[in-house]
Every structure is written in structure tokens, then in C-alpha cells.
Amino acid sequence: xxxxxxxxxxxxxxxxxxxxxxxxxxxxxxxxxxxxxxxxxxxxxxxxxxxxxxxxxxxxxxxxxxxxxxxxxxxxxxxxxxxxxxxxxxxxxxxxxxxxxxxxxxxxxxxxxxxxxxxxxxxxxxxxxxxxxxxxxxxxxxxxxxxxxxxxxxxxxxxxxxxxxxxxxxxxxxxxxxxxxxxxxxxxxxxxxxxxxxxxxxxxxxxxxxxxxxxxxxxxxxxxxxxxxxxxxxxxxxxxxxxxxxxxxxxxxxxxxxxxxxxxxxxxxxxxxxxxxxxxxxxxxxxxxxxxxxxxxxx
Length: 299
Prior knowledge:
CATH architecture: 3-Layer(aba) Sandwich
Number of domains: 1
CATH superfamily: Phosphoglycerate mutase-like
Helix content: 25-40%
Radius of gyration: 19 Å
């Protein structure tokens, strides 16, 4: 079945979203300019064994034609529900141990997260408006062909410069990147870096992991989707994801699981300096991308 109104497009233009992405690997590639890179080294025994799971929501209910899909709230199709089940099974088989699952608050992502959470034994799901798809403004939910006919010059401008072009009332890729990366680092700082790994003074020489509280409010929204066809939508204002500062698994922070949209996943893999190979760059609906937390992120 064609995925006509998913927030992505599988063509050569999607590669443009990945330009500037430092080549690395899914074991946590780093670059010297990354904030925190020079603020000290962490020995392996002081770094919690944490992975990041980035999950694309399942396929939404299909439209009769290809549309710009951003923050129009479309639920999962039956196929999408099956993709969410498969993603949950994969996390279960990989031994994922999240304290909670963060997700875009749009229905297609929330439903995916709920299905995965049930597979993992009822893990809390935290909706986060800042992980929505890119704001497409007045184009959101409109047929691509209609926009092409009504606004041919603007349509061409977007196709020529996917990262910088901003639809009327919407966002561009850099707007999306700004809010998504800020929220990611807030969550990581509060839920993960806040668990300070310290040497235990006992004879066992073990580690004592201490956590702090969390919380915080978001201030915008968005998401993004590449290609010359269907894209995404936007939103401003509202609360971000809230954390409860609980202890995680085995005394540590556990794994970080985020369910979101194409543009959000592109943003996060670029921020984490992960080189996503070939076809995986399309982040197919229901796909799971696994990243070992790079050492610089703990600094």
C-alpha cells in the first residue's frame, strides 16, 4: 500500500535533509565542535549503559492523494497498528529498558507509543508537543498537486531549498531543529545526565547512581518531512514532556525511547552525529533506529 500521507517522501530529495551530517556510526560518532565535548572525559565505568531508540510512528490512515502532512491529526491505519506492534516486539527482543516513552502528541505517534508501551509492560507514555512534525502552515493537509497548481513559484522554491524554505505560517528545517534539539537535551539532562555515576566508598567498589527531579515547559512545536512531495505541519505553545525523576531500571536511568515523525528523526540523528545508511534514511513507518549514547552527551 502506498504511504501517501505519511510525513515523508521516498525520493532523491530526502538526501538533501542529511547534507552536513558528519559521517559516523550508530555506536555514537562524535565531532570536536559538539557542545560539552571538551568538558572532561568519562571513564566507561562512570557512564550508564544507555541506548537511544528512535521510532517512526506507524502508517496513518491514507488519503485519496498525496498531501502535505505535518500536524494534521490523522490516526493510525490498521497497517500502522501492525507496524507499531512489530516495533514493540523488536524493542522487547532487544531488551529495551525505558523508564518512560516520549512521543509526539499527535494521534499517529501517541497510538504507536501506547502499543509499544503495552508490549513493554505498561511503561508510562509522555506526550510532548515539541516532538511534533514540522509546521507546514497553510499547506498542511492540502493535496500536493493542488499546492503545485495554486502556488507554482513557491512550490518550486521549496523544492530547490528544502532546509531553508518556510511555508506560509509554518517552519523550515532549522526552526524544527532548534526546538527538537533543545527538548532532547532537556530530557537527557533531566532524565539521564542527572543520574550522577559516583564511586561507592564501600569495599565492593560498586557504583551508586543518584537521580534528581525533572519537569519543564515547552514553548513551541513542529516537525519535518523531506522531499518534493508530502511534508509536515506546525504549532506554537504548550507544555513539553514532563519527567517524574524516578529511578529507572537496575538503579540506572534505563534507555531513552522517542516516538516521532520523519523530520524529528532526521534532526536527532544529525544532532547525535549518526550516519544512517542508505534506505534507512527514509525512516519507514514503524522503523526502529538504535543509537549507543555518545560519550560527549554525558559531559
